[in-house]
Write a structure and sequence with these properties.
Layout: H1 12-26, H2 38-41, H3 47-52, E1 57-59, E2 76-78, H4 82-91, H5 130-151, H6 164-176, E3 179-185, H7 195-204, E4 208-214, H8 221-234, E5 238-242, E6 255-256, E7 261-263, H9 274-288, H10 295-306, E8 341-347, H11 353-361, E9 379-384, E10 387-391, H12 403-409, H13 421-428, H14 433-437, H15 450-461, H16 473-486, H17 502-506, H18 510-518, E11 573-574, H19 579-583
Parallel strand pairs: 3-4, 3-8, 4-5, 8-10
Antiparallel strand pairs: 1-2, 6-7, 7-11, 9-10
Helix pairs in contact: 8-18, 9-10, 12-13, 13-15, 15-16
Length: 584
């Protein structure tokens, strides 16, 4: 019998630690493609993280690339401490405290203080070399982060973009554009619009700015009208456009019943959103006057309006007018150069920038995804031969927006959440999730907590962990948050004094304009009970990235996602947030 020591149990966790230690031995420092330590570049002096051996920066949309250069446009945020994650998980087990309707009213000044600015491009000239310009930009960005660290506490600030490469794309788009198109989600408009960008665009760059309130089909028409007037009073030089890439003729069963519940079921082939495109054209005509001939754009919209479409037939547009290219050079702006109007599209991740551009074109020219940071570089696309759109990567501006709101807004990827239950708690205290999801309390109790809702949804959907066969609360929470992001569970914040003036907004003149843009007519109304549950999910280009509903970096979740979850079976979506609460 061979002599030797007795074998001892060796867990999988111990094996991972062994491999991690081996990897760190080969690569002592985690360096980027330039050989510079990422923590030093971003000025992360976090002693607690260094002692625990964890990185202070969390990369939330890393994608492996071929070659040595890597992905320069990774979204980067500060990483939360483990103690804070543990504390929030405990709070998720406390009973919900339901919020009244007037508590949904917000004012943007609370989240964008006047002394909180965004990074701007430092001065440069063509006499400087490319290396000198980039070195100056990097030095400026480091000083900017140092300034924020001295002036604010990182815990008070929201998760904002820390990647200099992404900010460089914004600077280039601001430089080359004649008109700035800033796109926001109508459900959280005041949390997405930075006043510092408005001041910089109108006062420093002397350019016109158009605010596009996108996805207006997800909110009631009076609320959309109220938000339009809110921005008009607060920013007098701002042009405001109400828009949706999914008007009634691009939906099947576009129905809102008496309880305020709706289901969006989009067609496979989408037409141009001609109502919103016509309003955008009218605003651009008012801005450019006779300096640019926009007749070709007007003819394009008229053709789309009068054209008869087969539901199964795609919209055909000449390939010669669709141009996509990467442009990272330095640019000095000349207004309406060569008779071409350049419109720059800017906004935070997941507000629908790419969808707006596709809806304006009448066919898909920009890939669309639910994942924040999907657009990695700005793209120039010609709408007509003398009108071009410039799509900037979505980036999160510095603010004091709470993280739970950032998750619901789509600024922070759901799949990267280490603790999603706080966001579920925030959502459940404002809409009646147990009733909308049609779930039973897992313990048969009357008092709900965020964890109870996740367990109830996991039980209904059959989501269990692989090894212990316990309810997979983490995966269930991600599934609910995905439905909220997609608009199936709709929470919309309101402007100040909206509740007390609800009757005024109900009869406002802008309500009819909103309904016209939404293209909601009687011929489109169908009974949502007649729609099969499997048809309620949205089929878009982000389906291959559906892992946001299929687990994430949570130690308690050991299950794997082998097929996409149908989140919408037996689920209704609410546009009137408190209609469900009033019936309870």
């Amino acid at each position: 019998m061979p002599q030797g020591r007795r074998k001892i149990p060796f867990s999988g966790k111990a094996k991972k630690e062994q491999l991690k230690a081996k990897k760190q031995g080969k690569h002592p420092q985690s360096q980027d493609h330039r050989g510079t330590n990422r923590k030093k570049v971003l000025l992360m002096d976090r002693s607690d993280d260094e002692e625990n051996g964890s990185e202070a920066v969390q990369k939330v949309n890393y994608q492996p690339t071929r070659g040595k250069q890597g992905n320069r446009y990774i979204l980067q945020f500060y990483k939360e401490a483990d103690e804070e994650i543990k504390r929030r998980k405990e709070l998720a087990r406390h009973s919900l405290e339901y919020i009244s309707e007037d508590k949904l009213e917000i004012n943007g000044d609370e989240y964008f203080p006047k002394d909180l600015d965004f990074p701007k491009r430092p001065l440069w000239s063509y006499d400087m070399s490319r290396e000198e310009v980039e070195m100056r930009e990097q030095r400026y960005f480091m000083e900017y982060l140092n300034h924020l660290e001295k002036k604010f506490s990182w815990k008070d600030l929201s998760y904002f973009e820390l990647n200099l490469e992404t900010w460089r794309q914004l600077w280039r788009v601001l430089e080359m554009s004649d008109i700035i198109l800033f796109i926001i989600d109508i459900r959280f408009p005041a949390l997405m619009f930075p006043p510092s960008l408005y001041d910089y665009t109108t006062n420093v760059l002397k350019k016109d700015m158009i605010l596009v309130m996108n996805k207006i089909d997800l909110s009631p028409a009076p609320l959309v009208a109220a938000w339009k007037n809110y921005f008009k009073e607060k920013y007098p030089n701002l042009h405001i456009l109400m828009f949706t890439s999914l008007p009634g003729y691009n939906l099947i069963g576009n129905q809102s019943n008496k309880s305020g519940l709706q289901v969006r079921r989009r067609k496979g082939k989408l037409k141009m959103a001609s109502e919103g495109a016509q309003l955008l054209l009218d605003i651009c005509k008012d801005i450019v006057k006779d300096q640019v001939d926009l007749a070709s754009w007007q003819n394009k919209i008229k053709e789309e309006m009068s054209m008869e479409y087969d539901e199964n037939e795609a919209v055909q547009i000449e390939e010669s007018i669709s141009i996509k290219k990467i442009d990272t050079g330095f640019y000095q702006h000349n207004k309406y150069i060569d008779g071409v109007l350049t419109i720059g599209c800017i906004g935070q991740p997941n507000v629908g920038k790419s969808s707006v551009m596709n809806a304006l074109m009448g066919k898909k020219v920009v890939s669309v995804s639910r994942t924040p940071g999907h657009t990695k570089h700005f793209q120039t696309i010609f709408l007509t031969r003398n009108v071009r759109l410039c799509d900037c990567p979505g980036l999160v501006f510095p603010s004091k927006v709470p993280k739970v709101c950032q998750v619901l807004m789509g600024s922070f990827p759901i799949a990267q959440l280490r603790e999603p239950y706080t966001t579920i708690k925030y959502l459940a205290e404002r809409i009646d999730l147990p009733k909308l999801l049609k779930i039973d309390h897992p313990d048969g109790d009357d008092s709900w907590s965020a964890m109870d809702i996740c367990d109830g949804w996991a039980k209904k959907r059959g989501l269990i962990t692989a090894k212990a066969a316990r309810l997979d609360s983490y995966r269930a929470a991600n599934s609910i948050l995905r439905m909220a992001l997609d608009g199936k569970l709709c929470l919309s914040l309101t402007p100040p004094h909206y509740t007390e003036r609800k009757d005024f907004w109900l009869n406002h003149s802008d309500v009819e304009i909103v309904k016209w843009i939404q293209a909601k007519g009687g011929s489109d109304m169908e009974n949502i009970e007649n729609i099969p549950p499997e048809d309620l999910s949205d089929d878009d280009d982000g389906d291959e990235l559906h892992s946001a509903a299929c687990g994430g970096p949570d130690e308690s979740s050991e299950s794997t996602c082998e097929e996409e979850i149908s989140d919408t079976e037996d689920v209704v979506a609410s546009t009137n947030k408190f209609a469900a609460l009033s019936d309870a």
